[in-house]
Write a structure and sequence with these properties.
With about 190 residues, the protein is mainly α. Helix content is about 60%, strand content about 5%. A two-stranded antiparallel ribbon has the order 1-2. Strand 1 (about 150) and strand 2 (about 155) form a beta hairpin. The longest helix is centred in the last third of the chain and has 33 residues, at about 160-190. The protein is elongated. The termini are far apart.
Length: about 190
């Protein structure tokens, strides 16, 4: 049986070095995993919708970027609100498992819109958005554990909202993989 040991609750809401390192590594890894999948795609593959009518790879990347911007806005609102002495650390792993679960379909609260942006424009926006997120996290004095916002699964501290950004990215990287697998299978049957 594995026992999880959570760092002691910090009164000022700052995160431990372990938590900060995990979060930054997670955001960097989810970014690199997705970019590895999509960077070399041609425009046709990038913009073709799957047979089920879902999003194209380009639309998925745009959605990831829009969601990151929306959650980042929620984080800034949370940090501007009064601090609370609540410790939700024990929910970190559970929250990530919920966000990453592709078996449960979730409707986005974000509006979907047609875009005429090129692949390069979309990827540039995505990279700039993630760079701003990571730059913000370079401040190790942020009280991420005692300021709260709303998440799809209930109240979350600001640290957990950052985890959602990474988890959401990972969830949709899996969707991109599924979409690309469908294209590969379709091409194989046409040969």
């Amino acid at each position: 049986m594995m026992t999880l040991i959570f760092p002691a609750h910090s009164q000022d809401g700052t995160v431990s070095e372990f938590e900060r390192t995990f979060l930054v590594d997670y955001l960097e890894r989810t970014q690199s995993d997705m970019l590895e999948l999509v960077t070399s795609l041609d425009e046709k593959t990038w913009s073709t919708k799957p047979s089920d009518g879902g999003w194209s790879v380009g639309e998925i990347v745009e959605h990831i970027t829009s969601a990151e911007n929306a959650v980042f806005g929620s984080i800034q609102e949370a940090l501007a609100s009064p601090a609370q002495d609540i410790d939700l650390r024990e929910n970190d792993a559970w929250l990530l498992s919920k966000v990453n679960d592709r078996g449960v379909k979730v409707s986005t609260p974000l509006p979907t819109q047609e875009s005429n942006k090129s692949k390069e424009e979309v990827l540039k926006e995505y990279k700039n958005t993630r760079a701003e997120t990571l730059k913000f996290l370079s401040n190790d004095e942020l009280p991420l554990r005692n300021h709260f916002g709303k998440a799809l699964y209930g109240s979350a501290d600001a640290y957990q909202l950052f985890l959602i950004i990474g988890g959401h990215n990972m969830r949709h990287t899996a969707q991109i993989t599924e979409t690309l697998d469908e294209f590969t299978n379709l091409q194989a049957t046409q040969e």
